Q: What sequence folds into this?
């Protein structure tokens, strides 16, 4: 079995994995119930469940939501090391692109394309479903996406992409000149791809809101419950620092943290990315930058370059660089060098905001893998270890991953369970000690050759 090498011996002393940073200055956390510390009690003593989900981010919460839909009588338990939404799910840029699961099948024929589009847009549809059915409030705004570029080479790529999307029946337009300036007043941007398919959210509200929704469906959630060891078998034994639970099925929803419990080691690794939030913009500052259609805006220089307007009109902007810490180290929660790059970048895009206050800066760990594509599937000798990992840009994709996991559990054959991400064999990423070096080279190649320079 290629994807995991769990520790078996019950006799060794286990040190809890070194998972959590001391301090995260995350703007989104302040807008949720986390300020009142409404965190559930840890697991203590011995328990049984039908399904144990490890990790209370979007993947774990969506898996719980979808598994409950298909198996309403099963006892589902989520074990979350810190609190639901503590990982990337509560810290991200709130940028939800609906096209992240479009794959080669779109090129086949009309039917294959329609199925793929259905899967790719499912993540946003599911968020809307939960909002409608359960009153979840996550400051959701479905205003589409605007992808901008700073040079002619990138503009050509963008134009070709726009042609593809249109051919596939997705509403999009390639814009330049005054039309672009009407969307966003920045002389830095020379072309843009406007698509109707995308949304922005308050990520922590989505995670904490989903926590409440699944608890309402009788899913048991234990927070402050770090899983320190899993002994796999027909019945799995899952140990936390203070308790134990036995279950015939588990779901691994630990994304960038998976290596800490010996899963997907040297295949999925943490990549640390950072964001800042400005103070709320005044109406004259808003006027100076345009952006009245409030799309999520991204550009093409790096894996993540994204900005959104929060409900109270702050700019939340992230990207500019991402870091790989030696030995698969997790994010420290912040990084001054990258934060300063992001702020510089903000000023370059919107010189009129030179004096704006930056009120929050934070970061977190998301997952990298060769190919930057997630894998969602099932493995293990007894085919009872379900997982969804490798989400680098995963806000809507993780929602869909939860449905895929539930459909796989139910043995369904459909466009979700046959998507190319399902059971993708994540390639070996080389030994850890070489990863920093190769990572630096890969980053240089991405920025300077593929994306055409730092701008
Ligand atoms: C700063 C930042 C900005 C981002 N911006 C965007 C964006 O704008 N758009 C986008 O699409 N994507 C973005 N991403 C990526 C996106 O947030 C992730 O891909 C997605 O949230 C992954 O969700 P997840 O549930 O799989 O993992 P996570 O949200 O990381 O959840 C994993 C959970 O598992 C828990 N856990 C780990 N180990 C254990 C253990 N041993 N025992 C118990 N619990 C454990 C963790 O505490 C954590 O809560 C960003 C990521 C970061 C860090």
A:
């Amino acid at each position: 079995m290629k994807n995991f090498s769990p520790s078996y011996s019950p006799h060794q002393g286990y040190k809890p994995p070194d998972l959590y940073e001391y301090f995260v200055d995350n703007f989104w956390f302040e807008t949720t119930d986390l300020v009142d510390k409404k965190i559930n009690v840890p697991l203590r003593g011995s328990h049984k469940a039908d399904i144990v989900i490890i990790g209370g981010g979007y993947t774990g919460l969506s898996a719980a939501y979808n598994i409950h839909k298909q198996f309403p009588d099963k006892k589902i338990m989520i074990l979350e090391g810190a609190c639901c939404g503590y990982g990337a799910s509560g810290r991200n840029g709130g940028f939800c692109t609906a096209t992240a699961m479009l794959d080669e099948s779109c090129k086949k024929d009309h039917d294959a394309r329609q199925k793929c589009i259905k899967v790719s847009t499912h993540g946003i549809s599911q968020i809307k479903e939960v909002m409608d059915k359960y009153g979840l409030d996550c400051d959701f705004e479905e205003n589409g996406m605007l992808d901008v570029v700073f040079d002619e080479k990138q503009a050509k790529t963008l134009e070709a992409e726009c042609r593809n999307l249109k051919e596939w029946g997705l509403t999009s337009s390639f814009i330049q000149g005054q039309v672009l300036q009407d969307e966003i007043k920045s002389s830095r941007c020379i072309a843009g791809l406007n698509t109707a398919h995308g949304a922005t959210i308050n990520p922590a509200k989505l995670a904490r809101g989903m926590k409440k929704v699944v608890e309402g469906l009788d899913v048991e959630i234990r927070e402050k419950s770090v899983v320190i060891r899993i002994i796999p078998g027909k019945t799995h034994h899952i140990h936390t620092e203070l308790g134990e639970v036995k279950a015939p099925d588990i779901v691994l929803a630990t994304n960038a943290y998976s290596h800490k419990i010996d899963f997907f080691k040297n295949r999925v690794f943490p990549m640390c990315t950072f964001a800042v939030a400005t103070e709320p913009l005044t109406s004259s500052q808003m006027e100076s930058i345009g952006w009245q259609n409030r799309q999520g805006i991204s550009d093409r220089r790096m894996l993540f370059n994204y900005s959104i307007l929060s409900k109270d009109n702050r700019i939340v902007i992230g990207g500019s660089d991402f870091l790989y810490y030696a030995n698969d180290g997790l994010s420290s929660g912040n990084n001054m060098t990258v934060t300063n790059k992001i702020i510089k970048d903000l000023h370059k895009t919107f010189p009129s905001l030179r004096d704006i206050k930056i009120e929050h800066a934070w970061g977190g760990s998301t997952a990298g893998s060769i190919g930057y594509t997630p894998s969602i599937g099932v493995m293990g000798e007894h085919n009872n270890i379900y997982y969804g990992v490798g989400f680098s840009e995963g806000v809507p994709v993780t929602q869909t991953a939860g449905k895929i996991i539930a459909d796989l559990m139910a043995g369904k054959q459909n466009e979700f369970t046959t998507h190319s991400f399902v059971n993708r064999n994540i390639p070996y990423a080389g030994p850890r000690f070489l990863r920093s070096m190769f990572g630096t080279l890969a980053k240089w190649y991405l920025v300077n050759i593929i994306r055409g320079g730092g701008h």
In short: Residues 7-11 have pLDDT under 50 and may be disordered.
